[in-house]
Design goal:
With about 250 residues, the chain is an all-alpha fold. The protein contains 13 helices and two strands, in the order H-H-H-H-H-E-E-H-H-H-H-H-H-H-H. Helix 1 packs antiparallel against helix 2, helix 5 crosses helix 6 and helix 7 crosses helix 8. The chain is extended and about 80 Å long.
Length: about 250
Amino acid sequence: MQLDVAVELLKKAEVSLVRYRTTGFASAQVSAKDICEKMNTEAVLKQKRLRKTKRQFSYESPDEEVSDALKKMEISFFNVVVDVCIASLQERFQTLDKVQEKFGVLVNFPDLPNAELIKQCETLSKTLSSDGESDLDGRELAMEMQSFPSLPETSMTTLELLTLFQKKRLKEIYPNMWVALRIAATIPVAVATAEKSFSRLKLLKTYLRSTMAQDRLNGLAIISINREESRQVSFDEAIDAFAARKSRRGPF
């Protein structure tokens, strides 16, 4: 998953959830009625008896009770669930959006004015700096983007731009853009892959395999993590290669 693509998908998901909050409950009622008809069940939501709570002080205004069962379900359940989803989406990926703002110049540079382009390039150069040294020069990066030829498409992702650099052999002509694109394309969007890979360890290093050496553990972990590629490997060829390395010639 690429950083710019992930941020764009998250924004679309947020807009979709906001739209679903206004129209989703009505569509859910239609789906529920269809399911009830197939199950030969009456599509009626029973209304529970309203309970009144005793107020300790007379100046407390009692809440208005909702008599309609569907309206109460929409307010107390549907809207709450959707609002929690929207808030969680905004909170969890807030940092990812900030990172995309710094690397967004790599895909938005054709539409930026010169002053804004130089400003964002210098910001990116400061972001990729450590101990006073930066991986790229902001001024030179802006000059490379200003002199970059027209793109084959109006909008391209970082990986598509990186593929274009490799195909047209532009990395020596635009070295700063080449470095910035490689860094942007390798930024992890989520840690799910790393967590999944680390969880494989408890399946490999069990109590019965406590004496396993480090080299064998690394090899088994690589095979287990990259199981899709390992399934394409021919066992016969691997056995023959292993036998050729370990074979010993007998005495003549």
